[in-house]
Structures are given as C-alpha cells and as structure tokens.
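Please fill in the sequence for the structure shown.

STRUCTURE ENCODING:
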C-alpha cells in the first residue's frame, strides 16, 4: 500500500555517536548529562527524542506548550524512549516586527542545526503560532530524522454581545466599523477582552489552524491533531500519544522524506481548498516542498485546488470557529470527504505508519452545517486562484472563498500607494481621489521590499467609502495577508516591486483588469509603454547593510517559490557531525 518498509530493530542509533561506548568523548558527553540525575542505563541505545518546544512568553499562541511538552515526554518515557526538551527559535506572529515572516527562514535554520548538531534520534515538533509550524517542519525536513508534529490547538470561541468573535477576523471587521462610524472606540476596546479568552492559536481558519491542518494532511501529525482546542483534555492525550508514536517511528526509521512526498503535498493543497485555508499556506508549502526536493509550483496550486469545493463553514470564509469544527469531527471528516470525491491520494503514508485513508475512512461527521456536504459547499471553487498576466508574470494569488462575487471580474482605476507608510499617510484623507470602483495598489511590501513580506495586503478601505456601506474593494499588492482576513485581495504579486516587477511601475489612473475565472491580472497599457517604464525604473528600497536583515535581503527568493533562501532548497546534509573532542 504505502511502499514503506521499517528498518530492523534493534540497531545502533545516531545518539550512540555521543553516548555509546567507553571512549573519552562518550564519557564526556554522558558525564555532563548525568549532572541532571539521569541513570546510566538511559544511555543504553534507546531512542533519544528531542522535544523541540517553541514556547515563549512573547509567543502567546504557544504560551501553554510547556505544559503540553510534559505530556509528550510522558509518552516518550512510556514507549521506552529518552526525552530531552530543547527550546528553539519561536517567531511570534503577533509580536515580531517588521513581520514574523522575515524570521521563518532563520527559525528553520536554527531548528535544522539544533537537530543536526545534537544527539537526537527523532523529534517532536511542538508548534502552534503561524510561522512556528512551517519553520520547524522545514528544519526537520532538511535533516530528515524521524519527526512528528504536535500543535498547541486553537483557543476557545470568543463572544461579544452575543456575536461569535473570531481571532483576527473581527479585529479587521470592528476596526472598519469604527472608521465607518458604526462602532465607538470604547466599544472596540470592550470587544478586545473577548478576542483571546483562552490559551491557543487563532480560533478562525487563519494561518495557524491552516498550517496545523496542512501538517495533518501531509501526514506529519497524527489524525485529528489539527482541531482539538488548546484547553481540551484531548489535546493533552494527543500530545502523549504522539510522544509514544515517535519512539516507534525512530525504531522503524520513518522519516519526513518517506511521508512528505508529491502525493502528500497534493493532498495538502486540496485539503487547503476544502477548508478555505489561508493564502499563507501557499508560501509555506512551497518552501517545505523545496526542503525535501519536491517540485511543487504555483501552477500545481491552481490545477489541484481549482475544482475543490470549500466545505468548511468557518471564518473568515464562513460563520463558525475552530471549536465547532472540532465538535463536528475536525479535519479527518474533511479528508474522508475528499477521498469519497476521488480528490485524495489514499495511499499516502502518515506518521502513524498507516495510509491517510486508513486513518479516516471510518470517521463520522456530526454537524452538516459546519462541515458541509461536497454537493452543497460554501464555495464551489475553493482553493487558491493563481492569477497571471502582464502585472504578475510569475503569478499572484487570491482566495475565492473569502472574496466578493461581484468583484471577481472587475476593471478599475488604480490608486497607488508606494509603500505601507504612503498608504497610512493617505488612506484616511478625505481628499484622496478614490471610490469603491477603484483598485487599491500597494507596492514594495514583498520579501525584499518590506522586508519580510508583512501581512498588510488586506488594506483597510478609506473611511469615505466605508460610510457608504461598502465593505470590499479590489486590492493588489506584493504583500501577504493574515489568514484571518477576508476580501477581494490579490497577494504575493511576483516579481515583487522592490526587484523591479511590473507592480513597481503602476501609476495612479492606470486601468487594471481582474478576471479570476480567466486567472488574469492585467495592466491596461501597451507592451511598449510597460517596457519603457520598466527600463526607466530605479530601485527605491535600500538593501540592509548588516546583520540578519542583510542575509535575508541577499538570499530570499520570491513568493512564487516559497520565499526560502536560495541556498536551502533541496539541500539536506549529514545528520551526524564530527566529534568535538
């Protein structure tokens, strides 16, 4: 079925290069570990499991992971392993400036070297906040030791005056209501207390929940992991069971490269369409695929996701939240429905050692309004629309399930903001020449431009438009947007403006055509005029001269390939280094 053959057990594991034998070097390594009270027989060749923990007081989504790690370690002990908890780089979405995305690659490098340079035979990737999931998977994939993902889970539903409050989604909504005069600032502050009322990640189908779902759909997490609320006792059970499972994975030598195959990535892309997942999944899966040498492109995203219906009725596309999604059966129900619709590679291997279909074929859905039938979807064409044209030669993305139907084919006058500061300076000006028919264009917010490609693509509308009752306009940028956001927003336009992509030369008054069905994004000027503008273009973004920012700017690739560093795609090195003594 899956084509995987476990290695014989027992055998010598990687950690024995540090701890096995009686040489001066092994005595050195063992001796220092024993100052923590570990008995000698723990170094007898049993699997040493690194529990890579992204807990941090400055990563609120992951604030409960220290408690969860104890359950993971309990499972490892029970299965005969030796757990060692290792704190790793934690890039918080709601803390890091200029954007956590700038540090995803740094976190992945740090994780890779933390694994490579230390005596681990396998890893539990303890993650939650948006960038922590892809960064740890990228790092683990580059070393290719047995690894399993355990996410922290979403927070409980928020409520404000009887209305469900979705993380992020209502932040954008209430902010626009204040600008439109429909909500007071005092009411906005009152609503703040209801937005994050328990431990966990965003309770919408934002990037954190999307990436938890992607890990499960890839087969890198146990079935059912993605949706269990952070404070639910079953989240702790999942952590403990994952701890047990990683020990057997090490014995079998079941590695990320065995699981993260092309079929697995295709399953994940289709699952993203079915759940109405974040556009950020595009960049992260492209980068993750690059780490295992799988050639996944934007064209694959469009081809595989175009006819996948969105069947999960969650904010920002729908009305429910992750708590209801879990009660309805969670991601296993979605994957089962994809399988029944022949939209799943059923034989794809998972960390359980079973195929993904074996994991889900007997699950039951409990709420048909939260997880809809394939024949009655929230959106018939979910997935991610990949747009191309003279404005985006290498592609741009749009999330149809979160967009407005009447704007999916639109022609409008460009109102240009040269960068995010220009946008902030102008957007509330009543003299700004803009109405709801215009197309808002934001430049210099891509990987090199911001730097780091911040989540600013879902530009708030001008107050004078909001006061008309208008809640959506076409917006185009080389930026990202939060997975909790919504609207007819074209993102990741490539090449980005900062490197001289066509977006850089759009001018106020230019006409732009968007046709999502035709997958077209077009600047209505002649080829000759576009060529002349590009020839005259001069860079406006100053490259950083030192530190990590310099490394990032020099080596980051475009959004169309995942914005990883150019020297890391498909690059896996030895998992065992030379002795230090």
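FILLED IN BY: designer on duty
SEQUENCE:
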């Amino acid at each position: 079925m899956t084509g995987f053959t476990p290695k014989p057990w027992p055998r010598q594991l990687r950690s024995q290069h540090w701890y096995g034998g009686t040489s001066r070097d092994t005595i050195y390594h063992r001796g220092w570990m024993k100052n923590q009270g570990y008995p000698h027989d723990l170094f007898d060749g049993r699997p040493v499991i690194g529990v890579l923990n992204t807990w941090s007081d400055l990563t609120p989504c992951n604030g409960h992971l220290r408690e969860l790690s104890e359950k993971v370690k309990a499972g490892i002990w029970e299965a005969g392993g030796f757990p060692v908890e290792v704190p790793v780089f934690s890039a918080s979405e709601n803390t890091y400036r200029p954007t956590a995305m700038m540090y995803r690659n740094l976190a992945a490098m740090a994780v890779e070297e933390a694994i490579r340079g230390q005596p681990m035979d396998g890893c539990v990737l303890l993650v939650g906040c948006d960038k922590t999931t892809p960064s740890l998977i990228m790092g683990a994939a580059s070393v290719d030791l047995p690894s399993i993902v355990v996410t922290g889970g979403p927070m409980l539903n928020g409520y404000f005056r009887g209305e469900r409050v979705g993380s992020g989604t209502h932040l954008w909504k209430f902010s626009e209501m204040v600008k439109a005069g429909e909500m007071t600032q005092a009411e906005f502050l009152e609503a703040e207390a209801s937005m994050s009322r328990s431990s966990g990640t965003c309770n919408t189908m934002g990037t954190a929940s999307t990436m938890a779902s992607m890990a499960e759909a890839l087969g890198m997490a146990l079935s059912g992991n993605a949706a269990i609320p952070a404070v639910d006792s079953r989240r702790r059970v999942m952590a403990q069971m994952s701890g047990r499972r990683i020990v057997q994975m090490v014995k079998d030598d079941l590695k990320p490269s065995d699981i993260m195959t092309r079929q697995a990535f295709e399953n994940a892309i289709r699952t993203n369409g079915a759940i109405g997942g974040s556009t950020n999944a595009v960049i992260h899966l492209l980068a993750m695929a690059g780490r295992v040498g799988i050639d996944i492109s934007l064209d694959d995203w469009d081809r595989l996701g175009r006819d996948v219906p969105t069947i999960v009725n969650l904010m920002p596309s729908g009305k429910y939240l992750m708590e209801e999604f879990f009660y309805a059966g969670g991601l296993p129900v979605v994957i089962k429905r994809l399988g029944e619709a022949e939209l799943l590679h059923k034989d794809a291997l998972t960390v359980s050692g079973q195929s993904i279909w074996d994991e889900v074929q007997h699950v039951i859905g409990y709420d048909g309004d939260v997880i809809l039938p394939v024949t009655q979807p929230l959106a018939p064409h979910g997935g991610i629309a990949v747009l191309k044209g003279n404005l985006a030669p290498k592609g741009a993305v749009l999330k149809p399930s979160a967009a407005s139907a009447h704007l999916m084919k639109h022609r409008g006058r460009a109102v240009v903001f040269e960068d995010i500061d220009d946008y902030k300076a102008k957007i509330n000006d009543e003299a700004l020449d803009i109405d709801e028919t215009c197309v808002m264009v934001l430049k210099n917010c891509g990987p090199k431009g911001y730097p780091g490609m911040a989540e600013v693509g879902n530009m708030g509308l001008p107050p004078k438009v909001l006061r008309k009752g208008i809640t959506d306009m076409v917006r185009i940028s080389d930026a990202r947007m939060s997975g909790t956001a919504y609207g007819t927003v074209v993102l990741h336009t490539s090449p980005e403006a900062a490197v001289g992509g066509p977006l850089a030369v759009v001018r106020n008054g230019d006409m732009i055509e968007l046709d999502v069905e035709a997958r077209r994004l077009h600047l209505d000027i002649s080829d000759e005029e576009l060529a002349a503008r590009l020839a005259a273009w001069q860079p406006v973004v100053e490259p950083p001269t030192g530190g990590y920012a310099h490394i990032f700017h020099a080596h980051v690739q475009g959004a169309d390939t995942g914005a990883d560093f150019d020297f890391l795609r498909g690059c896996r090195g030895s998992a065992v280094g030379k002795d230090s003594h």
